Fold this protein.
Amino acid sequence: MKSRERILGIEGGGTKTAWMLVERPVAGGAEPASQWVVIDQGKLPPSNLRLTTPERLREIFAGLPREVDRAGVFLAGCGTAEDRRSLALICREIWPHAKIATGSDRDSGLAAALDHGDGIVVNAGSGSSVTGRRGDRIERAGGWGHILGDTGGGYFLSIEALRLILREHDLHCGEMHFTAKILQALSLNNLDELVRWAQTADKNEIAMLAPVVFEAAAGGEARVNEIVEEGARVLCEYTEAVASRLHLLAPKVVLMGGLFYRDSIYTHAFRRRLKKNLPDARVTIAERPPELGAAWLAAETPDAVTVRANLSEKEIQNLAAALTEQRNPRSENLEKMSVRELVELFVEEEKFVQHALRTATADLTEAVEIVTGSLRNGGRLFYVGAGSSGRVGVLDASEIPPTFGASPDLVQGVIAGGVSALYRSVEGAEDEESAGALAMREREIKNSDVVVGITASGRTPFVLGALAEAKSLGAKTILLTCNPLCSHGAVAGPGDGPEGRGHRSADLVIALAVGPEVLTGSTRLKAGTATKVALNIVSTGAMVALGKVRGNVMIDLHTTNAKLRDRAVRVLADFAQCDYDGICVP
């Protein structure tokens, strides 16, 4: 057996990736991390998980020591369980025999600064964040990224300084002394070149101007100093909020990150402001680097022992059993077919869509009645899905306002990954039950609402999490699937697997047995068609019952274009039995 264990700690952010390789006794772990033996350490390019591609991360990690027993990899942007799993799988390619722990740079910073103790860590680098701990409770503020947050970080200070330069030019047609400093730092000649540079520069390139900002503030540039003071003020405000939520009256406040390490002016500004509202706070600069905290977490965290796949073995078996994942024997030679044969096969396969819908007539009828009852009582209808299923739900929801003159709030589509998932794949967005549950809470689901979860396989975690949360909030729930095993409970019984959870969370299960797809697993085909028709039936049936239709005519549509105005005239002329020319529609 080995007498010592080699642990690699990695902390990555928008400016750099820092790493440290340490050794400790195999039987150890009780000794503080500060007593471990540091074998090697270094710095590599930036590795923010949200801003760096997986390919680039592999390139960065490939330059690190390979012979390790444990690796703790903690990157900015690694905020969700799915992020941690994705990062762990990348790490597994680099260190196949190591025990892996992954997480956010907040986690490694907290470990380096506080060990197991209570306190607050204020991190100001390219971005910024405030994280506090008291016992097992963690509170956070800031750290929302450079677009919407990170006030007080290097990007914030730099972008505000660039805006100041242009504002001064616009108001006074002159250039500050500070302008020349910025142009010199970037090797640019004028403001037009500066604007063009800023339009293509990324977060890290802009944040690298922070030293120039601090130099100008220290040199007496009053308006630049105001920017520095504003950054310190917001970080203090976040620190005070975290301390209040944790009920820490005299917290230990540890400052981390390049802005505090490099520039004493920022540290002094923060201390001075914090002293006003938290006079008993003990402010100190972190003595240990966050990469050591990453190594410490790799050694201490039980989850470091394995890297699990997204799905358990049982869940993988259940997914493989789903009818939508089976191979279609009629299309096994798809690439050898002529174009005519391929088209005829697709057309022929549509008969399974018709059969599936006819078989589900009773369930679709009940669904229309459930939705009608909810909407009539002031409730709302939500479609929840991921990928193709989510897009179909959003499509049907978006057609309700123009077709029936209904409020956009009445029928809403919720898709895993948000609006960007409508036009491109958002990898891993569907794998978090907690994300689906959060989506329901954010929309303030109530007991008069009805939630339709759409998942071809019947097991999408985002959808099942949303259904479970909606049911717990008292809403009516419907599961729409193309896997008939879900409705019969053959795949998973109560308490077993995601299908079982989805079944128990649904007041009604609609199973559309369209069979295997022509292209195996591509549920945008027959499953997507059947799903779209089913939603057409449910939403249109409910609108008819609510009086939005007379005969087979839409009577509440909005006349927002020439075609709809013409249609409105013809409808009124028909109902009033008068001439077309006698009707005036504004």
About this structure: The mean pLDDT is 85. The chain has 22 helices and 17 strands. The longest strand covers residues 4-12. Residues 222-246 form the longest helix (25 residues).
